[in-house]
Amino acid sequence: MQEHREIQYIVVSFSHRHIDIAMREKLAFGEEERLAFLRALCEHSAIKEAMLLSTCNRVEVYASVLEAKAARECILQNLESFKQIPLEQLRSLANIRLNQYAIYHTFSVASSLDSLVVGETQITGQLKDAYRFAYENLLCGKDLTRLVHYAFRCAAQVRNSVDISSSHTSVAGAAVHMLTLRLKERGESLDSKQVAVLGAGEMGVLALKHLAKHDVRLTLINRNIQNAQKMLENLTEEIGRKVEIAPFSQLQGIIDRADVLVSATGAPHSVISAEMIRPSAHRRVWFDLAVPRDIEEVQVENLEIYRIDDLQEIIAQTKLQREENAKDGYKIVEQCTQEFFKWLQTLSVDPIIKHMRALAKDSSLKELDRAIKKGFLPSEYRQNVEKILHSAFNTFLHKPTMRIKEAGESINSDPMIEAIKSIFDINDEIVMLNKYKCEEYLARSQNTKNPKEP
Length: 454
Known about the structure:
This protein is an alpha/beta fold. It has three domains: 8-166 and 321-346 and 439-444, Glutamyl-tRNA reductase, N-terminal domain (Beta Polymerase, domain 2, 2-Layer Sandwich), CATH 3.30.460; 171-315, NAD(P)-binding Rossmann-like Domain (Rossmann fold); 349-431. The protein is 53% helix and 13% strand. It has helices at residues 21-27, 31-42, 68-83, 87-93, 100-110, 122-136, 142-161, 171-185, 202-211, 225-234, 236-239, 251-257, 312-317, 319-346, 349-373, 382-408, 413-423, 428-431, 439-444, and strands spanning 8-15, 47-54, 58-65, 95-98, 194-198, 217-222, 244-247, 260-263, 284-288, 303-307. Strands 7-6-5-8-9-10 form a six-stranded parallel beta sheet, sandwiched between helices. Strand 5, helix 9 (202-211) and strand 6 (217-222) form a beta-alpha-beta unit. The radius of gyration is 28 Å and the shape is elongated. The two termini are 28 Å apart.
């Protein structure tokens, strides 16, 4: 029989808090590579389930594991293999969180408290996509489903209870705000400028929404014209203006003419090479919001190129107020983390089975004592009858016990376990394994780096 080992949660994180854009670029995953990477992780005996979140600001592995140190080494070694980054360098850069710290971090990410722009809502969709990808490819099940669903509940509670928004609570919003400031410094405005957006993904859509608030001439460049048209049809009310759609084949001419370019594709490599960036008599401002970067490094007269990490100045302007409000958000995350662990503990089948057996034993002994008291059974037979009763209820409970243990491994086990608890009148206090305190992590979370060793 296979030895039962308790499930643990682990997060291996590389984020904007301690990794620059060049390293995040090296760590970024495309869809096919992501699938191969996750499959390699889940083949290891220490890892049960895994999902990968790869965005412009973070690359993070979320996993349920049977042995933390072996799982950590497996994740780092596979990152070394897939990304050709030395293992020792990965060890020095990774933030590794285990169990309550992993849960707290996951809830903070889902609630956008750990984002470059605190309060941005893009991360929720990105986390949902990461989970959906892993689930549809059979790389995660019960453990990560519980974690992610509870994380979304926590995020909704933070959103509804705490004001952590601002006028530019997204990277795209911060870029447009920075653009208006730069133009204002040289006595210009964004109005009447010719603006091009490269990419019709989520970041490109956000950029269009912010740019459409100004009187600009907008051009959307995308490889798939039909996808771009469909996206714009869904945004007619929000954008409220005509946006010209151009095929990728016209990219060169558009970037030569446009005053402003916002590039946010999901390409695994640069799409605007140094050779494509020609000198121009008019001043141009470009924003590269992609990771990996869309635009190659180049120095050209009359051209300013800003990357994601350059937006810190704009983000910092409202950072203090948002951080003050975010403290209340972290309190909610702390509370949700405690509740999640308590809920997990009530779903453990072992204490439920133990309590069912205790109920059967107590009932048998009460009836035995009653039979002896009423004279139905001589007291000298008590020990032998007790053994018979013990054997009888063990035989009776054997199959139900096996079925409950099997059900406990199913992704649909939670409603069944709750039903069993209700039928046998087993309350949560009975099955609580231990109490969890999160205050220590809340104190540590104020630091950029957290303990790396599980």
